[in-house]
Amino acid sequence: MKNLKDKKILLIICGGISAYKSLETIRILKKNSCEIRTILTKNAKEFVTPLSVASLSQGKVYDDLFNIENESEMDHIALSRWADIILVAPATANTISKLAKGSSEDLASTVVLASNKPIFLVPAMNVRMWEHSSTQENMRILKNFSYKIIGPEIGEMACGEYGEGKMSEPIDIVNSLESYLSMIGKNRKLKALVTAGPTNEYLDPVRFITNKSSGKQGYEIAKSLLRNGFQTTLISGPTNLKIGEEIKVVKVETAEQMFKETQKNLPVDVAVFSAAVADFKIYQKSEIKIKKEDKLELKLEKNVDILKYVSNHNSMRPKLVIGFAAETNDLENNAIKKLKDKNCDMIIANDVSNQKIGFNSDLNEVTIFYKDNKKEKLLTKEKSLISEQIVERINNQLN
Ligand code: CTP
After folding, report:
1. What sign has the CA pseudo-torsion 25, 30, 34, 36?
2. Is 344 a residue of the active site?
3. Which of 18, 172, 296, 363 could form a disulfide bond with 357, CB atoms 3.0-4.6 angstroms apart?
4. Which domain does 309 fall in, by range?
5. Which of 185, 212, 228 finishes a domain?
6. What is the pLDDT of residue 380?
7. What per-residue confidence (pLDDT) applies to 160?
């Protein structure tokens, strides 16, 4: 497991009967040359002792938020920055609930809240607790925060009941971390480009034709690509959205500008065209403000199809080209036609006749059509979750 070598793992152990498995997890991580620091929640100390954790991990064990000694050596912010990965194992129903609420009442929840690092949760609890709708709702929130979830497994539990809720085995936990790091390592060498938002097509210096696209889905895809290690460029039409500094953002207004900036940012390995590019621009835009008259006739001409240009490029076609299709009717036929006409590897189609999802909403529901005739529906969920799933598909296709 070469990707784990020298990685700094902050392990948070919560108070559950499966806490004993974290000792074995520490042992395997140490064998793979990880540096480990551990936080024990108050209840965790009932199940494992700080001394056994410190001896096995050969690293510092923290247990109290306001411990002067700890805070002067390394405060909770520094501790969350120190880690390459934060691993919460076992993650109990109580901690899951705290994390979903964004609580900061103890060191474990404060460090997670303050973290900008990948967070892995390994849930472990009784089957009824796991299946309870409040736990399931908390898990949905945490997935939406892009926390990664390992398990739980189905099996016989310490309490004697059988079902889903059993903590994953230490070796499976460590394998999950290794494959995540390996995927990130490969992706760091890859470039991704995303177009997003609407375009404005000017009639005169102050008036333009545009559309209702908010750009949210494209921005979320760019964020997911970054989280998955890709060097990401976002070419964005006018939106009110903000995005972190690690993404190269190029702001444009018209389709023509979006096309030029896309060309400038080639070659890339993956290109996702989520922008709602206006199909037409004004033929001969007026250089001065148009005055009111009884009638105004507009002559339009076609904009260049940016996606088609890139997907048919002789020397710079990305390994993966992904297009979007917004349809009000006959979704499947229209999407498959677009997939072929535009020479895409994947088309992500959404039904824009439903006002509650899609345009200008935080929710989306899409069907992905693949080049090999497969299709897959991603049911209604937050755009941030849809984008995580899309990027998961991108990773699969690249491998
Ligand atoms: N696209 C593009 N450049 C354009 C037009 C569209 O890159 N000038 C991309 C979009 O970003 C999206 C896909 O092509 O990925 C959508 O195709 P398009 O034909 O524009 O879809 P619709 O506008 O829905 O087409 P139609 O009106 O024919 O349904």
Report:
1. positive
2. no
3. 363
4. 188-398
5. 185
6. 78
7. 83
